[in-house]
């Protein structure tokens, strides 16, 4: 799918903007704080129903204005045109319209504008704690599997109940029987979660290692594996059985700590480049490239799921990549509509500038062609 045009009114620092887009490469260029990310944010809000950098809807309305709106015209791969609108009035609830018709549930909006965003916070995927990588897995898997989404919600609910039991009821009569009941349920849901994550990580590894090799001119080999306490991962039953045993073995420790120490809520992703752990030893550029490769795998995953290429939004990804990586990145996805923000268009090689649309942004106005 492709975005044909975006119309903004009172969105962030934009007064009025009507901007058309190239079906392939678009480069939004401008100095700091001119409105480059605001334009990506407007597109994102129309696709996901919320911003990636604020939970306060009112932030999106231009200072002093009473409302904001975004109107996006896009074209599906079968040629059908669709107009998606986002409207917000200060003090009122936001509204979404598709081809002029109001949408009542956000779930009806999701998937209409298929977007993949990479922005500087995505580096957390590499740099920060395992919780960040679990969040990534949960988000990705929930996108493609509603059953996974339900399983993880249920797993977290059971986990909370077990932790509550460990903290408050360990001296109560019948504690052992109660904990055993929770353990069986936790192992059942936990095994489903772990099984799906292992399967997903397997394809994530296949896709992201190819992307990474492309972006690094085959100099680096990216490897992603799922790290869990469960060794016997043959099938659902073996995972469940081992998890159940580990829960029982760890009960004494869990009682002392007041929380459950094994299960998918403690698992992680191991991310290696040329067999070296990237979190501890990777350079900034390597970490950024690895985060990009993982995130960009979504393109392939979404394509397989819905049979259509998503639109790629890249916010400020170029700054820590050398020229070769920048060129290879653009080249790797040259058939996907891409919208990139950058402060310096010279960073992007000349041959790509000729094939792209440059959108020059200055103080909330597009001064481009
Ligand atoms: N609700 C709002 N009303 C008016 N201006 C706003 C609003 N919210 C943010 N801004 C302004 O938007 C500008 C920031 O825009 P944006 O984040 O798009 O910058 P950018 O061009 O991506 O910059 P950088 O290169 O530094 O990332 C700031 O000047 C900020 O004051």
UniProtKB/TrEMBL annotation:
Places the protein is found: Cytoplasm
Q: Where in this chain does the record put each RecF/RecN/SMC N-terminal domain?
A: 3-343
User: Quick one: which residues bind ATP?
Assistant: 30-37
Would the keyword Oxidoreductase turn up in this protein's UniProt record?
no
In the record, the note on similarity to other proteins reads: Belongs to the RecF family.
Q: What is the lineage of its organism?
A: Bacteria, Bacillati, Bacillota, Clostridia, Eubacteriales
By what name is this protein known?
DNA replication and repair protein RecF
> Primary place of residence?
cytoplasm
The protein's gene is named recF
User: What is the role of this chain?
Assistant: The RecF protein is involved in DNA metabolism; it is required for DNA replication and normal SOS inducibility. RecF binds preferentially to single-stranded, linear DNA. It also seems to bind ATP.
The record's SUPFAM superfamilies line, in alphabetical order, gives: P-loop containing nucleoside triphosphate hydrolases
Source organism, top-level taxon: Bacteria
Task: Give the UniProt keywords, A-Z.
Answer: ATP-binding, Cytoplasm, DNA damage, DNA repair, DNA replication, DNA-binding, Nucleotide-binding, SOS response
């Amino acid at each position: 799918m492709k975005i044909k045009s975006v119309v903004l009114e009172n969105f962030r620092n934009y007064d009025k903007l009507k901007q058309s887009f190239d079906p392939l490469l678009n480069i939004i260029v401008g100095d700091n704080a001119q409105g480059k990310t605001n334009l990506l944010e407007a597109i994102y809000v129309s696709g996901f129903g919320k911003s990636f950098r604020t939970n306060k809807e009112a932030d999106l309305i231009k200072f002093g204005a009473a409302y904001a709106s975004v109107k996006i015209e896009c074209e599906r791969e079968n040629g059908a045109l669709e107009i998606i609108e986002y409207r917000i009035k200060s003090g009122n609830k936001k509204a979404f319209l598709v081809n002029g018709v109001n949408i009542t549930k956000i779930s009806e909006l999701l998937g209409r504008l298929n977007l993949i965003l990479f922005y500087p916070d995505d580096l957390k995927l590499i740099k920060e704690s395992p919780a960040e990588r679990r969040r990534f897995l949960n988000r990705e898997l929930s996108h493609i599997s509603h059953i996974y989404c339900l399983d993880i919600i249920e797993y977290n609910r059971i986990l909370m109940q077990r932790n509550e039991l460990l903290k408050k009821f360990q001296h109560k009569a019948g504690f052992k029987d109660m904990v055993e009941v929770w353990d069986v349920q936790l192992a059942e849901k936990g095994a489903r979660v772990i099984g799906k994550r292992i399967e997903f990580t397997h394809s994530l590894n296949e896709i992201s290692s190819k992307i990474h090799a492309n972006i690094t001119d085959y100099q680096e080999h990216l490897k992603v594996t799922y790290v869990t306490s469960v060794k016997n991962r043959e099938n659902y039953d073996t995972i469940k059985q081992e998890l159940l045993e580990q829960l029982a073995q760890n009960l004494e420790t869990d009682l002392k700590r007041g929380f459950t120490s094994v299960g998918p809520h403690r698992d992680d992703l191991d991310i290696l480049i040329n067999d070296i752990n990237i979190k501890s030893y990777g350079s900034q550029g390597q970490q950024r490239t690895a985060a990009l490769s993982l995130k960009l795998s979504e393109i392939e995953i979404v394509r397989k799921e819905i049979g259509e290429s998503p639109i790629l939004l890249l916010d400020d990804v170029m700054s820590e990549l050398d020229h070769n990586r920048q060129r290879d990145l653009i080249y790797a996805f040259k058939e996907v509509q891409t919208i990139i923000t950058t402060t310096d268009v010279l960073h992007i090689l000349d041959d790509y500038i000729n094939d792209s649309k440059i959108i020059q942004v200055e103080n909330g106005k597009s001064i481009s062609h």
